[in-house]
Specification:
The chain is an all-alpha fold. The protein has a domain at 19-107: DNA polymerase, domain 1, CATH 1.10.150. It has four helices and no strands. Helix 1 (10-52) runs antiparallel to helix 2 and helix 1 (10-52) packs parallel to helix 3 (89-102). It is elongated, with a radius of gyration of 32 Å.
Length: 150
């Protein structure tokens, strides 16, 4: 409990300092060792899997989901073994790097953008053109027939 002055008692202050020092030591230990471990153990296997795929299939979720899942699980298991928090800033930066290298040309949905087939695209082009021409012809025809208009 805080005293009237808003300051922690000496015993609690010391305990808080010890806890913060321990957490920062764990975080500092996780930073360099954890980063190296996930690059060595996890990224190496992922690189092999991706190089086995044709580069044109990197954006195909069906082709990469298993390797990507293994990469994610690997980063988690390494964090667990090293008593590091997961997810953490290093994992976020690691996956940003992976995405920038392997998935930078992929659309957000995971599918490459392409035009629909002509049998689907055709009606969406032809129908508005035909309707526009018919409406224009109707207006011209109606404007030439002035009898009956009051």
């Amino acid at each position: 409990m805080m005293g009237n002055s808003g300051v922690l008692p000496a015993g609690r202050h010391t305990a808080l300092c010890v806890i913060l020092a321990t957490l920062s030591a764990v975080a500092m230990a996780c930073s360099s060792y954890y980063e190296n471990a996930i690059k060595e153990f996890c990224l190496a296997k992922f690189k092999e899997d991706m190089e086995a795929l044709d580069q044109g299939h990197w954006c195909s979720w069906e082709d990469t989901v298993e390797s990507y899942g293994e990469l994610t699980n690997c980063t988690y298991l390494v964090a667990l073994k090293m008593n590091c928090f997961w997810p953490n800033r290093l994992v976020d930066e690691f996956f940003i790097g992976v995405h920038q290298h392997y998935f930078h040309n992929c659309s957000p949905t995971g599918r490459l953008p392409h035009d629909p087939p002509n049998r689907i695209l055709g009606p969406f082009i032809i129908v508005p053109v035909v309707v526009t021409l018919l409406m224009t012809a109707l207006v011209v025809w109606r404007s030439k027939r002035s009898e009956g208009i009051v």
